[in-house]
């Protein structure tokens, strides 16, 4: 249960950071937070595919931010079409 709470907190922070990094591609505060939680899953998956390990809070946050940025980029491309 405690791990799930940390996952949500890291995802929320990652979404906020990704929204700040990808200026003009964000979806507002609430949208970026949802993107961050989904991006945390995507980031963990992508890091696993690349054979990278994200351990600890900082590593998890980095993986989540990378996943959220990738997700914001993909959603931005789809939204443009």
User: What is the alpha-carbon Rg in Å?
Assistant: 12 Å
**Which strand-content bin applies to the residues?**
under 5%
| Order of secondary-structure elements | HHH
Q: Which sheet architecture does the biggest sheet show?
A: none
User: Which stretches are low in confidence, meaning pLDDT under 50 for 5 or more residues running?
Assistant: none
Task: Determine the N-to-C terminus distance.
Answer: 40 Å
Name the shape in a single word. globular
Brief account:
By secondary structure, this protein is an all-alpha fold. It has helices spanning 2-21, 28-49, 56-80. The chain has a domain at 28-81.
Task: Explain what this protein looks like in three dimensions.
The protein is an all-alpha fold and 81 residues long. It has a domain at 28-81. The chain contains three helices and no strands. Helix 1 (2-21) packs across helix 2 and helix 2 (28-49) packs across helix 3. The longest helix is centred in the last third of the chain and has 25 residues, at 56-80. The termini are far apart. The model has no long low-confidence stretch (mean pLDDT 86).
Helices, strands, pairings?
Blueprint: H1 2-21, H2 28-49, H3 56-80
Helix pairs in contact: 1-2, 1-3, 2-3
Task: Supply database-style keywords.
81 residues, mainly alpha, 83% helix, globular
